[in-house]
Amino acid sequence: MLGAVGTDLDTGEFVVFDADVVVLAAGGYTGLYGRHSSRDDENTADGPALAYQAGAALTDMEFVQFHPTGMVGDRYGDDWDGRLVTEAVRGEGGRLFNAEVSASDASGDSGEPGAPGGERFMERYSPDQMELDARDIVARAIAGEIDEGRGTEHGGVLLDISHRDRDFIEERLPRMYERFAELGVDMAEAPVEVSPTAHYGMGGVVVDDDGETDVDGLYAIGETMAGVHGANRLGGNSLAETIAYGAVAGEAIAERLPAPGGDSDVLHDRARVHLRDLRALSNADGDEEPEALLDELRELLWERAGILRDDDGLAAGLDRLERLRSRAADLAVGDRTSRSYEFALNLGFGLLGADAVLRSARERTESRGAHYRTDHPDRDPGWRRNVHYRRDSVGSPRLTTTPVEDPSEPVQAALDADHELDYHQLE
Ligand SMILES: Cc1cc2nc3c(=O)[nH]c(=O)nc-3n(C[C@H](O)[C@H](O)[C@H](O)COP(=O)(O)OP(=O)(O)OC[C@H]3O[C@@H](n4cnc5c(N)ncnc54)[C@H](O)[C@@H]3O)c2cc1C
């Protein structure tokens, strides 16, 4: 590894980092979805895209976790669209209802004390676990209700905890209670409207046990890397992972430092190529607004590689992505301190990340974890494999698969143990 180049977004100056080891820690890729729980402009696949461009492999990009309960923008305003309604609301007894009012509901008898009307639909999807079933199951159930026309007029379903005492809600769910109160909803009296939102990308960069990619000296940690959470992360495990694997990578890097000095001339030669591209990107005087193309990309992924996927949709998504990519060659960009320059950089990373998601999701012709194919709804034991996405010798993406190894003994023992979930530590 020789180092990295970047732009100081305050001054527009380029920065060249002469470094023997580079650690990518730029988050994941769920910000590429139309509805997502991250802050705006984060998780746009920067880390995975940079690793791919450096020659490292990505894996599991099709596994995208959709949190069942995001706020509904049409009800609470665009700024809130997709933001999380914590899992704790369901953990504390919150119940999900669709908006279909039956004859019994209309007469005030929905069968649920204090219920807002509508059907408590999780009975049809998961009669034992109900609202507390795994995220993918609850998210799919909600998406199904909305798709089949039983959602609210704002495109959500109802999450209701008004059967609990006000004191209980205030004490156990203070942030949610306050947030909705500010938006004019009293959770002790009325339900809130929710629908699924892209929340966590299980995929990312392939790393070894030290966090190193297959490019010597290039490491990845946190949501940028893949492999820790399988096909479906358990809530709460990401922050534990960032700390644990951050420490592992840090120790491994400390052991190899000081490394023999890199060749600064080679770095500067290579950097020149990147800086030329970045220079061409800033002040580009084409016709397409980078922010608008990013929004289109988000809609594309939401529609074509969302909670429910199939081959036709994924193929159509790849075609549309190709058209977006051609339009992205004709950008209108300001100088290197402008927001449009940031959007243009994110668009570049996002186009690559979206391609990896669509192609990997198309490749996996089964349903597993967070990846659900309506044309292949069952889990296929033959697909106990990881899909890898890497650059071939002429610079095009190539997909390969490798078998998933059996868990180590300690991991298997942990899987077999009868752990309980505390919903106040999850997200
Ligand atoms: C609303 C919400 C609630 C969550 N709650 C929980 C929870 O309770 N428990 C849990 O375990 N997990 C939770 N998660 C998931 C968890 O927060 C993330 O997976 C975790 O923060 C990822 O950490 P990270 O360091 O890899 O990436 P991030 O925390 O995303 O940090 C990446 C950083 O890199 C910067 N960056 C990105 N691109 C570039 C670039 N090109 N150049 C320079 N810098 C860049 C970003 O600005 C950011 O500061 C939650 C996620 C969300 C969105």
Q: What distance lies between the first and last C-alpha atoms, to the nearest angstrom?
A: 35 Å
Return Rg in Å. 23 Å
Count of helical stretches = 14
The CATH architecture of the largest domain can be given as 3-Layer(bba) Sandwich
Based on CA inertia axes, which overall geometry fits?
Answer: globular
The share of residues in helices is 25-40%
Q: Report the sheet with the most strands, covering strand number, pairing sense and barrel closure.
A: 4 strands, antiparallel
Annotation, overall tally of beta strands = 12
Ligands (ions, cofactors included): flavin-adenine dinucleotide
CATH level-3 fold name of the largest domain: FAD/NAD(P)-binding domain
Read across the widest sheet, the strand sequence of neighbours is 9-4-11-12
- Stretches with pLDDT under 50, minimum 5 residues: none
Name of the level-1 CATH class of the largest domain: Alpha Beta
Fold blueprint:
Blueprint: E1 3-7, E2 14-18, E3 22-24, H1 46-53, E4 58-59, E5 64-71, H2 73-76, H3 88-91, E6 95-97, H4 103-106, H5 122-125, H6 135-147, E7 157-160, H7 166-172, H8 174-182, E8 192-201, E9 204-205, E10 218-220, H9 237-256, H10 264-281, H11 290-304, H12 311-327, H13 339-363, E11 385-391, E12 397-403, H14 409-416
The structure holds flavin-adenine dinucleotide (FAD).
Flavin-adenine dinucleotide binds next to helix 9.
